[in-house]
User: Fold these one by one.
Assistant:
Number 1:
Amino acid sequence: MLRMLFSVTILAGALAGDAMAQAPEGGCALPSEPWGVPAALDAAFSGPADKDRACMKALLVPEARLMFASRGADGAPAYRIETLDSWIARTRARGHGVLEEKQLSFRIDRFGDIAHLWSVYELRSEGKVVARGVNSIQAVKEAGGWRITSLMVQAESATAPLPKEFQP
């Protein structure tokens, strides 16, 4: 009986921990300095594709846009612009698949309450590297911390390899 009570207590604690981890106030604190933005972005992005995106919504200003630049097989440039809500819907359609983004290196240019970050990222799906590329992130300081105003992404490809100065 004691073993069963112990097991139920552990299970209840684990379930409560999951609920607390998804609550915005529990783990979505805005970075106090711009160098905290890449880690906050990684945490908000990574996890099951259909996870609660409250932290992502807290990190980006409501008017933020995400732009995905790419090159076709013929080398022609293209881009797609999305709102955060459209990105969430597209990502959620992947189901429970686990995505993990990690900023491998970054640099910051800052003046007062604005910052521009260049970061090299690696994206994993189910533990396998599926993409690398560069994020161009613009952020602004608000009373609660730093928030992203725009995020431009270009994945590495055969026609657009990572330049040496961006490689980690």
Number 2:
Amino acid sequence: MKKKLLFSLVLALVLTLSLAMPVLAETSAEVTVTATPSYISITNLPASFDFATVDESGTPNTTTGWFTITNDSTVNITVSIGCNGWSGTSSWTYGASGADTGQLKASDNDGAYDVVVPNGSTAELHTTGAPGTNVSWELQLDCPTTFSHGYEQTTTVTVSAAAS
């Protein structure tokens, strides 16, 4: 009986003390929040190309994959291409081959030269530029059918990127 009474007292004391103890619980929590801006950045190498001396009605080209655009963007991009026409003394007319008229064509690393590089606007060249990947491309010059002079001709080709 004494054991039962002692056990009951000890049990009552333990229960009383356990109810009196403070409950330990978290009163706050932290959440880490991140955000990556939609950022577009490209570079192109090499920065120039010289077709050197060309022939009437010729179609000289760079080798496949001659140029490389590095996509430092944080989003997928679409690459477009355009130019500012011919310049120099007695400039050629920019357009499909004719007398003193020539144009550039480009392709997306396949040597097809199936994208006419427009003068004063842009045309889509590549559509699946994932962040951190490179885009290779090449150019072809569709030379005039005849030349009326031997002056050097130049144009500036611009590649641009937009989020896709």
Number 3:
Amino acid sequence: MSKKIIIVCICLAVIFIFGAIIIQNIKKQNIKNDYSLTENLKVTSDAFTEGGMIPTKFTGRGEDISPNLKLAEISPDAKSIAVIMDDHDHPLGIYNHWVIWNIPVSNEVPGGISHGKIVNSLGGAVQGNGYGRHKYRGPKPPYGTHRYKFNVYVLDTTLDLSSDSGKSELVQSMKGHVLQYGSLTGKYENQ
């Protein structure tokens, strides 16, 4: 074999290995909500309606602040709230933008949550590692219109989970503790 063929084979092998690693990491991110829950929590927002367009203010092309989430008929057994926000149309599959847990029980998750691992203004809620940051990262699709789903979980406990945890650790930690689940999906188009 010539040196060119050997080099091409080595390059293809390296691409294959890195591709497999990337796909494996994406699969870890694409955890389905395996709680076998139906949506029994109504989630709305003042910022946008179900299936509606998310205003630029709440995106990576605007102020990049989190929208408020209103919750109806929360269980009296609730001890905390968790939120997972994902891009459902990312080229790599479902892509996590935001994880936050140990939010005090309330009929509203306020908008404009501050950045950082611990949110003191929200009773010590914890923002884990979503999109490589400890903060809300709003929609910023590379092209086209993407759907962004805010999954809200009402839990019967607070979670003892490191702030360096991501979506997969949060999902694992919530198992057996979800009292209610609801979601709100909005769209944003790259302009």
Number 4:
Amino acid sequence: MAELSKFLETPDVLKPYLKARATRLGLMCLIAAALVLVVDQASKAWVLYGLRLPLYGQVKILPFFSITMVRNLSMSFGLLPAGDWTRWLLTLFQGLAGAALILAAARARHALVGIALAMIAGGAIGNGLDRIRFGSVVDFLDFSGLWFPWVFNVADSAICIGVALLAWHLIRYDAGPAEAQS
């Protein structure tokens, strides 16, 4: 049990940026996470039911951009083999990670950290909901005309942007105390 509580502790690198309770900034970050989730799920509903993309497969928008129907049964870059156990393992991971990040975002004391955590949480929960509802993640943004071979979605974009913002913040501030950075 002690190992589990140690595992669930806030990572040391994030402790200077988090308070014990939710902050006003943290509540705004929760709204940001909800917005990411809503935009992600609405865009997927539009692709599936509005455009009926599963029937057409692809809609060419620009020479370098298409909306292409892809059902991702695995994870990024196909790092895990597709299968039922993969679906539920990734769903569990995305749910736990999303919940932990939501709690961290709610306690944020630094805006960039809170928004980054909220974006990652909203994206993780959005992709997790896809796995529960559809058995796979719905991907549709296709920039293969720019020699970018992967098809992705709004949740993936939010996760990538959130990770980049968090990395930029941690590099820029060298993980020092939040009070000294204001």
